[in-house]
Fold:
Amino acid sequence: MLNPRLDQLTDFPFDRLRTLLEFETPPGDMTPIDLSLGGPMHEPPKILAQEIAANANGWGRYPPMDGTPGFLSAVSNWLCQRYGLPGDTFEEAGMILPVAGSRDPLYMLAAVSVPEDQPGEKPVVLMPNPFYHVYEAAAIMAGAKPVFVPATAENDYLPDYAGLDQKILERTALVFLCTPSNPQGKTADLDYMVSLIKLARKYHFNIAFDECYSEIYDKEPPPGGLQACAKIDQGFNRVVVFNSLSKRSSAPGLRAGFMAGDPALMKKMRLVRTYGGATVPLPIQAASAALYGDEKHVEANRALYRKKFDIAEEILGNQFGFYRPDGGFFLWLDVGDGEAATKQLWSEAGLKALPGAYLSRPDDAGETPGSRYIRLALVHDVETTKSAMRRLADTLR
Ligand SMILES: Cc1ncc(COP(=O)(O)O)c(C=O)c1O
Structure:
């Protein structure tokens, strides 16, 4: 016997990509370049390995669920400095927890938020469309109905949650908002966030602010969910933010980050995590504290991404609807037919892209908002990126 909700899960985007390209072969004279995976490839800063080595005695102990004092104070200092919050904001125990990357706790917040069905009606989890694929699976496995809200060029890539039918909002248990977003690279401004928080409090749903790309930005540092809370009353009520060292410090293999926010909600997350969550090993917490305490490596990281967006801008110009995203490291290009372009790019140029259709779902009219697009991750070195952009422009002209 298996959980019937599993039947609603679609194949993982990268499995679909493998199937799409199964019978395509890249040209023999070109080194393939994989831009489909959003895995950071810049070198992590040296302090990471140094801190892990210096704290090696911690491998022999079970890590505490609540985070070490060093970890908690580094994250608290970083949050207060980054978002202009008072220094005592996180004094209450449990408002910050270490996480093994942000994916698992994002998934878990759905399990914590979604109530039982009301007679005949499933609770709802709202998410942008296109979206980071984990949100949909989290909603389904928690027993909710995922409702996909357009986040397209037509609405400046910001889902209009407030414009939804009141009946949907009344059934909503959780909303995901990714800022800067994957794949669109859109940053929500403070006014948008404040309105969303007010909406959540009016309709009694929780908000997951997925801020894993918060430090990879082009011009302005993106505002955060906790910063938006500070603009209004009721503390962090109904809000949890998720942050990660995967992108900030180019350390996706470290599996480290934090979640922070509403003390009542964090308490429930902690409870569930004590049964089924990964704790973060002591040497990793020590390295995380050092990484949140250092901005130099993050500035260098951002500069490298900017340089690659410069290259993309120079080579692509205004082709394929090119725009410079506010943040993140993806190009989101309108190529007319994302799946066809992905096949062509692989077979003619050895470039692996991800069709936008695999990151979105059909709307009520049967239109899949990402289907015209491809997503390209600018995670390689500068020279490889240059060569990839040239191949792209030559192939899809
Ligand atoms: C939008 C978004 N959220 C969360 C994650 C999870 O990242 P991690 O678990 O490495 O923190 C990713 C990773 O690619 C992502 O793109």
Observations:
- The pocket of pyridoxal-5'-phosphate is lined by residues 38, 101-103, 132, 178, 182, 210, 212, 244, 246, 252, 257 (CB under 6 Å).
- The chain has two domains: 4-43+297-395, 47-294.
- The domain at 4-43+297-395 is CATH 3.90.1150.10 (Aspartate Aminotransferase, domain 1).
